[in-house]
Amino acid sequence: MSEKEKNTSALNEKQGVEQPTTLSQSAAEKLKIQRKKKQSVDALVKGIINGDKTALSRAITTIESTALKHQSQAKQLIKQCLPHANQSIRIGITGVPGVGKSTFIEQFGLSLTQNGNKVAVLAVDPSSSVSKGSILGDKTRMDSLVKESNAFIRPSSSGDSLGGVARKTREAIILCEAAGYTHIIIETVGVGQSETVVHSMTDFFLLLKLAGAGDELQGIKRGIIEMADAIVINKADGENVKAAKLAKTEFNRALHLYPPKANGWTAKTLTCSALNNEGISEVSKMISDFIAEMKQAGHFQKKRVEQQKFWLLQTVESRLKSDFYNNAEIKNELKFQLEKIEANETTPFEAADVLLGML
Fold first, then answer.
1. Which of 1, 7, 132, 211 has its CA 20 to 30 A from that of 157?
2. Are 92 and 199 in contact (CB under 8 A)?
3. Rounded to whole angstroms, what are the CA distances from 121 to 102, 152, 172?
4. Rounded Cα distance, 287 and 352, in Å
């Protein structure tokens, strides 16, 4: 193919972007070396307490690592940061894909930072069951919030964790609190009714819904709606305003079918347009009222104690699973049992009994 034909072909590849001449090669090399340099746990903790976002990011990467060499460091990081934690408001936000979680969180986060608060967003992206990878593009969808000096956005992969959160979301909350963030927002994967784990690690659980999507009938079903402290109908703008108001009425009726919450709070239903920044201030005020009411009645601290108990059980389950699959003898026996199942010489239940018996 001639050069002319190549340039007119639909498969023609455009010339790449050249490196800017103003970039200092020596500065770039120093930056690469600095990024590769390992920091001690003490240095990371000091950086976190001083509000260093780079140290916070590195610490979260360390606790998320599955490498055995990082586990002892992760334990030390949590231990040293724990005395500086538990001073924030933890807010869980969930909803089906496409409901506008990222847009809502950006506007909500901006409203908080403009009032002098420090906001950390822990965004959990779904992992592919095939490639095991995640897009992790939440920062690009919150381009205004990411520029705020008092905001920190950390996307994480959900991995094999269920319940809409990442494997180390609980630990990441502690590190963000130690860094002085007053509001921790956890954006879940967004898969619907199964996202209940986030309810057990937050102070306020917000469910975003869409009008006209058939979700109004979901209000009579138990599960995630029953756990929500508030339901917000997003995208209440343009021609969708009327449908949003109708959905709000339907959800209010459905919420009355549930027994009252143990803390005495009655779940609220609001409408908003995150795109037009309408109704965000009302949501913020509702959350503030909720926190104040819960603290006054003593339910806030009680919920925090329940969170600690839940984290204990989750940690035990996680450690048992890790110890089980990292055991050399069990690894060999697992391979043998899988071969027996493939040859139809045993059942999955018998194989499980053999493996668990080795503990």
1. 211
2. yes
3. 10, 6, 10
4. 46
pLDDT at position 84: 93
What distance in Å separates the CA atoms of residue 77 and residue 232, rounded to the nearest whole number? 36
How far, CA to CA in Å, does 226 sit from each of 101, 259, 352? Answer: 20, 9, 35
Give the pLDDT confidence score for residue 340 in this predicted structure.
Answer: 94
Q: Which residues of the chain have pLDDT under 50?
A: 10, 127-130, 132-134, 160-165, 192-194, 217-220
Q: What whole-number distance in Å separates Cα of residue 315 and Cα of residue 309?
A: 10
Q: Kindly state the tokens that stand for 359.
A: 């503990």
| Segment 203-238, tens digit of pLDDT | 999 999 888 765 554 444 556 778 889 999 999 998
The answer to whether the CB of 178 falls within 8 A of the CB of 77 is: no
What is the per-residue pLDDT for 195? 58
Residue 109 neighbours by CB under 8 Å, 6+ apart: 119, 121, 142, 145, 148, 151, 183, 185
Pull the structure tokens for residue 325. Answer: 């699959």
Q: CA-to-CA distance for 151 and 145, rounded, in angstroms?
A: 7
| DSSP string for residues in 34-68 | HHHS---HHHHHHHHHTT-HHHHHHHHHHHH---H
d(CA 124, CA 157): 6
Residues forming beta bridges with residue 268, ordered by sequence position: 230
